[in-house]
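Fold this complex.
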Amino acid sequence: MSREKFVYLFDEGNSNMRMLLGGKGANLAEMTLIGLPVPPGFTITSEACNAYLDNNGEFPSHMLDQVFAALNNLETRTNKKFGDEKDPLLVSVRSGSAVSMPGMMDTVLNLGLNDESVKGLATLTGNERFAYDCYRRFIQMFSNVVLNMDHTLFDDIVERYKRKLSLIFDYEIPAAELKSMIEEYKAVIKEQQQFDFPQDVKDQLVLAIKAVFDSWNNQRAIVYRRLNKIDDHLGTAVNIQCMAFGNMGEDSGTGVAFTRDPSTGDRELYGEFLVNAQGEDVVAGIRTPMPISKLKDELSGVHQQFIDTCAKLEIHYRDMQDIEFTIEKGTLYMLQTRNGKRTARAAVKIAVDMVNEGIITREEALLRVDAEQINQLLHRQIDTSVKLNPIAKGLPASPGAASGKVLFSADLAEKLGEAGEKVVLVRNETAPDDIHGIIHAQGVLTARGGMTSHAAVVARGMGKPCVCGCETIKIDMDNNLFMVNGHTIKAGDIITIDGATGNVMIGEVSMIEPTLSDEFETLLQWANETKTLAVRANADTPEDAAKAREFGAEGIGLCRTEHMFMAMERLPYVQQMILAENLSEREEALSKLLPFQRDDFYGILKAMAPYPVTIRLLDPPLHEFLPSRELLLLEVAELKHNKADSQLIWQKEELLKKMQALSENNPMLGHRGCRLGITYPEIYRMQVRAIFEAMIQLTQDGVKPFAEIEIPLVMDVSELRMLKDEIMDVYNEIKTSSGVELEFAVGTMIELPRACMTADQIATEAEFFSFGTNDLTQTTLGFSRDDAEGKFIPIYLEKRILKDNPFAVLDRTGVGELMKLGIAKARSVKPDLLIGICGEHGGESSSIEFCHLAGLNYVSCSPYRIPIARLAAAQAKLKN
Amino acid sequence: MSREKFVYLFDEGNSNMRMLLGGKGANLAEMTLIGLPVPPGFTITSEACNAYLDNNGEFPSHMLDQVFAALNNLETRTNKKFGDEKDPLLVSVRSGSAVSMPGMMDTVLNLGLNDESVKGLATLTGNERFAYDCYRRFIQMFSNVVLNMDHTLFDDIVERYKRKLSLIFDYEIPAAELKSMIEEYKAVIKEQQQFDFPQDVKDQLVLAIKAVFDSWNNQRAIVYRRLNKIDDHLGTAVNIQCMAFGNMGEDSGTGVAFTRDPSTGDRELYGEFLVNAQGEDVVAGIRTPMPISKLKDELSGVHQQFIDTCAKLEIHYRDMQDIEFTIEKGTLYMLQTRNGKRTARAAVKIAVDMVNEGIITREEALLRVDAEQINQLLHRQIDTSVKLNPIAKGLPASPGAASGKVLFSADLAEKLGEAGEKVVLVRNETAPDDIHGIIHAQGVLTARGGMTSHAAVVARGMGKPCVCGCETIKIDMDNNLFMVNGHTIKAGDIITIDGATGNVMIGEVSMIEPTLSDEFETLLQWANETKTLAVRANADTPEDAAKAREFGAEGIGLCRTEHMFMAMERLPYVQQMILAENLSEREEALSKLLPFQRDDFYGILKAMAPYPVTIRLLDPPLHEFLPSRELLLLEVAELKHNKADSQLIWQKEELLKKMQALSENNPMLGHRGCRLGITYPEIYRMQVRAIFEAMIQLTQDGVKPFAEIEIPLVMDVSELRMLKDEIMDVYNEIKTSSGVELEFAVGTMIELPRACMTADQIATEAEFFSFGTNDLTQTTLGFSRDDAEGKFIPIYLEKRILKDNPFAVLDRTGVGELMKLGIAKARSVKPDLLIGICGEHGGESSSIEFCHLAGLNYVSCSPYRIPIARLAAAQAKLKN
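Structure:
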């Protein structure tokens, strides 16, 4: 940082200098450059700020000299003098870093006034009330913003005067009273600060600059940066600008405006202004501002100039602008411009409209919309204009918002739901036999369980809102209520849950319905024309498959057969299979499951044909299909206590013993995945038989299905080889008996570090790879998702050990490097190997960019995230 | 395989041709070469066998021509003719592959006899009984070995004749009766096989060769190869050799001998022989053979020649030999020689003796002893000569054998143990509060839990035998007994457990005490002079540290602080710490633990000074220190049922809730390791304070300690950086207050794939690495050790998906490659970084070889495996 120039006049900068001058300063310079009416001013650089902060609050040498030289320049231009008793130069002082940070110091206006210069201002403008009102405002702002004094100290004085004079608005207070108020202000300052309000205008300026610099490290700013992942070393610039006065009468005013509607994207000016007011009055809420459309009536002299300026700014910046302006005695001044924040809906419309207007290209339009933000458009959401009072916060397990009557029983939820009532199912945790309740509920709230708990997975699959692991709620099933933070919510009470934030509110909250506009379709169409990654869906039912195609899925990347096992009418057979004492018992249970599975596969393959469907054979540990061991333990104790029928006790105890034998210390690393297929080949044989039989039926029905049979949790090529032999054996049997030849592929999940390390060997036997990044993240980092997300990941994020939750955003450093290693090894033996991803990362935009860079063929994600994935895939292509 | 030569005369081969000629054939050729008296013969190659097996049982062309040409050569040399009615050439046919395989076809003697040639033999030898006895034996062996007939068919006939003639021994049956027996034999064959016993001697030979070839793929051979990991494609050779007859009278005989005692290694001939007998009589057990020392008396004519031959063989082969010999009418013939199998004790003594005798070099001696086998020398073991009847088999959790009274209570075990009784503690599983019982027991048997269960870890640390996870035993605590496979074992009954095999036997079994001979010390001394890897110990107590030094440890590579937390008098404070509601409660509990930890570290650092001690900060999930949640659940249910004091119920329920909050789905991947240090820095601060305070005290006591403070389960450099800051903060406080400077290092375990992938980053902050290969194996393969070893690893081994249990033998393909990647990355930034291994692989010889190859600086293992590690490290150096 050897630069010695710390101060830039607005004429010296431009919009590319935002790192040095901050966003505000760079844009003021840019507007000056393109000839817009900007009051003259200068910017002290963020480098000066950093030097000051690094040097224990001492300005870098020469900085103040440069500041006063620039001030001199302003004096020359305006023919005014800073602190002059006759014609004083007044300035505003505003902070502005490279990234917009609302947590920092705001604005000081009218700096340069003191007991003497105020008189000059009065004389010069012929408006004593105006001058003393400016001085009063300045003292108040300076005290609050620079001296960190509580603003209520001054508000109280204003209120007292208005009461005394029976006035409603501040601007009605006459000059004489203002003078007396100013004396009271100064007395308060003296009392609180032990010094007089600074009369030396240079002192005022220096103190204000210091205050801006110091504000970079105030608590709010630090928290804001942490939350928004903003670099602590950016520093802030300081903008010092000649005042333009919106409070010089009825031909003056001030306002803020967007060049298009930031909430709908409509192409019309949006904003508000106040006549005879200074900047802070618009936001203070004392007077009600007028909509920008009234500008024509109220300040007709500048109206056309204002419209032209807005249009010019939009064309120049090639984006919707958020501007601040002031009109001083009929002259328009621009005080700020920046790209305007907007809702997802507006972002989509503006991007597409601007392409149609010839302002930007399709590629730019695709990059203009935040892929993650469009999630809002796909789910009902809480109206962001409503102020919320959440009573609890859980994990945001499935996006969307829902209101309904609290019910604690799945049966009741089904009954009332079917009767047309809106209900929210509230449980400690859900289990497979709650599914009928979830289907008929608007949403689910659970006290326990993480992002991969049953409730979360099922709800995401159904596109229903879900808040999980909301540990502060205490459910009292006996009394049909739950308690949380002092509230008692009874069954039948209405609550609202927000699955996008995890918030839980009492009562119904206003919501916005999802909107899939024409522009949205257009944008996604452009995305398809741009992206090279295919986008598939994770879908387990024909309904999900159909929904996925609506959203544009090009196949199913993950069809989890275990979710089929969870269905109520099948679970008894699944349990019979698990608890079988021997092969023939197990095969008997499997033969009962076969028709169910065949129907499942028939439906899914049909819904997706001719696109491929990746069907993963049974993956989870078997005890997941059994009832809770703890409950059974208590039941047995109860039965014994009550001296119940000994035969019954014996039966239950036998079941308990079997469950004990099946229970595992770390089921995630236990007897699951292809290990089930190796130890019980008959299970996988039943599943592939069901797949092949369904395919034969489809073929006979004139549909052309394509199945990719996927072996989970492979750690060595020999597992895959052995199971492929079993699959081919079943296929050959069926081919012989039916005479039908089928098209299918056999491949594997890559979800263990060892699979990545030996991907070259595994690739010799695999016809495709699919990275299961949920499990790969668990094993690579040694994080159990269920345990980590609730317990230590939040602390890791807070302490900045992790930048993101690695289960939400793919960890490129660890998991990503392992994937790249695996891809390179696999493609070294099979250059054209089809490789995809089916972990939840497949629907997250940053992870999708990684997948694009790593050379994957497709990503797969839940149906509701497909639009996000399509856009993110296009953006990845455009960015790289 | 274009070789066209399928048959080698003994004169044409040598001992280097064992792959082609098999071990037996190669050594017969070698003995012929060095001029020892070997009956002439030839070998059909294993390549011929493989060609035959590959070609559906058809001999390769020309093979039989070569066989008969070789036979012709034998006829010329012996001046006999194959199948001749006057002077028939008789041969033996024996299988022999490159690797000794007792599961295969054995020997056929006297081939070439038929109804005519037997007469010639009778005339020629003037011994009709001899000739017909030979014929009778031949038919019997041929029928059994070549025709696969049950030998009892013939034994029954022999028994009937002996009963009829009132004879005791076979050789007493007179010629006439033998002839009649032969007719009966032939009738049985005709009846069973539907063909006559082959009279064409060429048919006899061809059938015998086929039988040997086919035997390569019989069930026993396949199972044996699987068990012993022998390549299925070796094939077997066939040795055809002129008969030498040990059954030609009192000047004839046959025997087997070792050139040194295979059980002690003493330098004296060891073996046995029978006068007037053929080979199979020695092993048949009908007559009791004489010890080889009697040879001088019984067959004095050949005694000196025999001794000289043995000496010559030993010098020639440079190893102890296991030989077969026959004496025919005073002439010595050698029929086989091979390196003799021996006990660990003998292996050590023979290797060291042979160096002293100038036969082999020290390097050869080091390579002669199987490192794994010397484990036998370090623990009491079951006498291998005893036939065992195990009633159950569990996991071999801690080597050594123990007998004692069964007790089910740790308190009682302590009481009786202190009173001098030998007891075996039998539990479903052990917990920290059973330790006093384990200390006073001879060994531990548990029904549940794997190789890393509490009982296993504690027992290995104490060097006590332990059998874990013996799931077939059903413990009935109410009646103080356990049942297993129909046996009921009551408290006080004596059992024997073998921690090396997992066997459980009723009663006391004869045992062999461990012997650490001078030769053993010498060999280990040579190992130290050879190896480049340092060997450290895993030790958690001063006693273990002292034991480790006795065994030659050069430091402690892993001191687990959590084992200290488990001690009875500390557990209440540990639990108080875990259940603390806030920081001050937690710090209060920690302050109680500090003096204990300081004393621990004082003792360990002192015992090992000046060698380094790697102290791992707290690693396991906290709920491991809490009582069983299931038991508490039942207790609460019981209390409620009995309407107990509501205050008590409330307390227990509160505890249950806290335990619920702490419980994890996959604790192995949960809130443990450095995650505890990050979330509760005060725990690690207490631990390092204890280390530093102990070091200061030691310094003041004139000891020079060196601590390596180790952070477990690091997945990212920022974890290490943050915790290193905490450590240095505590150090600086202590340095300032005490004025003492200490020597220590801060480093990390590398036990997660992500740590390997980012080892270059981690190395910048680490002063040493230690690979925790237990955890690294778990995460790389996705195997929970607790769940995998009992459930699917045995099946994986059986199906040959895994060659070895990856928790016993380091998986070089997956884990090893990740380690090499990590080492390369780390050394790219710190070329001299100290890197060790502390997983249990550190004591296993094949894994140690890998560590040597991978460039590690040291291995660390349990004290009792240090000698193994030293030897294996030397072998790794010599082999590579």
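Chain B is about 45% helix and 15% strand.
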